[in-house]
């Protein structure tokens, strides 16, 4: 079986961040130490299997976590299918035909439920899976504060309003991350997630044919599989150097004008983040440390007060309050259904 390089460098400076999250957000890395002591090993095992099948899945799970946290906090709402009472996030513009990895979260949840029923939230599983995906692809690891609850609702309009797009300007990115109490530096560090994953031709076509701040050889390379018309769903790696390795090559690409998306190259285009991008391009350790800190801050985004939450379980007939409202057997996300059978094979569209 394939082996994965992992990095376990201790980020001792994160202790303060963890304490803040544990206090203010009521989250703790030891939240399940007694109620579900094997949680971390279960998640790690399933993520290892998932990446052995498809290394791209690490990026897909990381993207799910980002898209979950940016819409009313890290509450698992991206995992919910539409019901008669709400239109959820799965088919919002940034997620439709591109958000993927739901079956991996389902597989983890199934094993977790067998070990510790009605105890661990899907939101926490997603947070752990995102961390392990990064580490299994060669990136850093960190202690994940736990104790999140799962949302009982989701909003397509909120997803459309809160998730930045591939054509976003630097000013827009700074504003949208700032709305989540994430600094421009946090935004630049989190953007390093684009060192793994893929994007569709339709999202970078304008850049490779019309923008001037792009390396000519790189543009020509991408044009081979992304024609001026047609091929919208053709995929290209976000990182031309190490597509499935979590490292600082993304920033070296930006310095060399090899950013795939317009929003990527905006980070190094004569603006406020140029110096930080150059620092990350020269220092893998600084990028890793700042990425972990920013991930912890993002992972501390919780639902607004008044949002109804629960710990979702696999068996909808016992606990799932939405079972009677579903119009088909696919309950989605951690709702325990054979989603692939209902929705068809996962489309290879979109980013990550």
Automatic annotation (TrEMBL):
Residues 26-311 form the Plant heme peroxidase family profile domain. InterPro entries: Haem_peroxidase, Haem_peroxidase_sf, Peroxidase_pln, Peroxidases_AS, Peroxidases_heam-ligand_BS, Secretory_peroxidase. The active site is at 67 (proton acceptor). GO terms for biological process: hydrogen peroxide catabolic process; response to oxidative stress. The keyword Iron applies. Binds 1 heme b (iron(II)-protoporphyrin IX) group per subunit. Substrate binds at residue 164. GO terms for cellular component: extracellular region. Heme b binds at residue 194. Belongs to the peroxidase family. Classical plant (class III) peroxidase subfamily. This is Peroxidase. The lineage of its organism: Eukaryota, Viridiplantae, Streptophyta, Embryophyta, Tracheophyta.
């Amino acid at each position: 079986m394939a082996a994965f390089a992992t990095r376990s460098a201790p980020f001792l400076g994160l202790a303060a961040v963890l304490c803040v999250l544990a206090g203010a957000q009521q989250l703790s890395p030891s939240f399940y130490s007694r109620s579900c002591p094997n949680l971390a090993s279960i998640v790690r095992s399933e993520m290892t299997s998932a990446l052995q099948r498809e290394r791209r899945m690490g990026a897909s799970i990381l993207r799910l976590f980002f898209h979950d946290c940016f819409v009313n906090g890290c509450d698992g709402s991206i995992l919910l299918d539409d019901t008669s009472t709400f239109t959820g996030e799965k088919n919002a513009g940034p997620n439709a035909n591109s958000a993927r990895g739901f079956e991996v979260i389902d597989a983890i949840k199934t094993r977790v439920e067998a070990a510790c029923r009605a105890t661990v939230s899907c939101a926490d599983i997603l947070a752990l899976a995102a961390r392990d995906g990064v580490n299994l692809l060669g990136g850093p690891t960190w202690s994940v504060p736990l104790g999140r609850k799962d949302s009982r609702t989701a909003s397509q309009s909120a997803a459309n309003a809160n998730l930045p797009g591939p054509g976003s300007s630097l000013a827009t990115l700074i504003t949208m991350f700032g709305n989540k109490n994430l600094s421009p530096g946090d935004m630049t560090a989190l953007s390093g997630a684009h060192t793994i994953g893929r994007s569709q031709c339709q999202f970078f076509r304008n850049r490779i044919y019309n923008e001037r701040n792009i390396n000519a050889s790189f543009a020509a390379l991408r044009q081979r599989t992304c024609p001026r018309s047609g091929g919208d769903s053709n995929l290209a790696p976000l990182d031309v150097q190490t597509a499935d390795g979590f490292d600082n090559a993304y920033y070296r690409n930006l310095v060399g004008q090899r950013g795939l998306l317009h929003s990527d190259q905006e980070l190094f285009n004569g603006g406020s983040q140029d110096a930080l991008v150059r620092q990350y391009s020269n220092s893998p350790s600084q990028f890793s440390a700042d990425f972990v800190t920013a991930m912890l801050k993002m992972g501390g985004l919780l639902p607004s007060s008044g949002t109804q939450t629960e710990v979702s379980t696999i068996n909808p007939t016992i606990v799932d309050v939405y079972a009677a409202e579903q119009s088909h057997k696919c309950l989605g996300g951690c709702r325990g259904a054979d989603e692939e059978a209902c929705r068809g094979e996962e489309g290879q569209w979109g980013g990550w």
